[in-house]
Amino acid sequence: MGYSFVSGQRAKEAVTITKRLTRQQSRQVTREHIFQSAAELFAGQGVSGTSVEQIVEAAGYTRGAFYGNFEGKHELVLALLEQRTQHELEEIQAMTREAATFEEMLDHLRSWHRRRDQSLASWLALRTELWLYGLRDPELLPVLADRERRSRDAIARALAQGFAARGVTTPAPVELLALIVHALDDGLSIQRVLSPDAGGMDSVVDVVELLMKSWTALARSPEHATEPTAAPATEPPTENLEKTP
Q1: Taking CA atoms, which of 44, 79, 152, 216 is between 20 and 30 Å from 143?
Q2: What is the pLDDT of residues 113-156, one digit of tens each?
Q3: Nearest CA to 8 among 37, 28, 30?
Q4: What is the pTM of this model?
Q5: Which parts of the chain have pLDDT scores under 50?
Q6: What residue ranges do the domains of the chain occupy?
Q7: Could you give the angle at which helices 141-165 and 73-98 cross, rounded to 10 degrees?
Q8: Angle subtended at Cα 235 by Cα 231 and Cα 237, rounded to the nearest 5 degrees
């Protein structure tokens, strides 16, 4: 989901704040600034094209500060993946908590997409770089798979809440719809970056709303879900069917 970048100068200015923080708070601030600088550089020139020296220079720290928090760039990438995953889950959970109805949830989602649209190209570039880094290292594939699963689970819970509010049961597992929504978000984001005029910034939300309406139309209300299906009144007897030429 969302992610923001800060300039190296801004990070340098923020370092002075750590003097008033506890050691643990200061360490967390340092990690956040390194994450922000690394994310910006990874998006702009790739993970392989970015050095530790470039990251610490952009963040306004020394190599010692970097290695005091991470063993190396590989560990930084893993930590960045986890940080982004957790951030996205918190965003989805917050939208779900704040929405009394599914319509309000869609409004929150539209607002989020409009904010993300301001830096969509950078967000997508970073996401792609982290994917590629993981795909090139078989040991990282389970990490990527777990990240995607956690995101889908959060989407599934939000969708399930929306269906429950409408009093319907889904015609298929809600996890399937979550997978479709997750994949559409990625695909439509790519199309929006490549062809900005092909679809508006609300295209993902519009698709989610369309899918929800379609599945709701197909769904059965709980009180009808267990009713036996009656045979058609015009169905001919079996013996007559056997005699029909």
Answers
A1: 44
A2: 888 888 889 989 998 998 898 888 888 888 889 989 999 999 89
A3: 37
A4: 0.71
A5: 1-8, 11, 15-18, 221-245
A6: 8-221
A7: 0
A8: 110
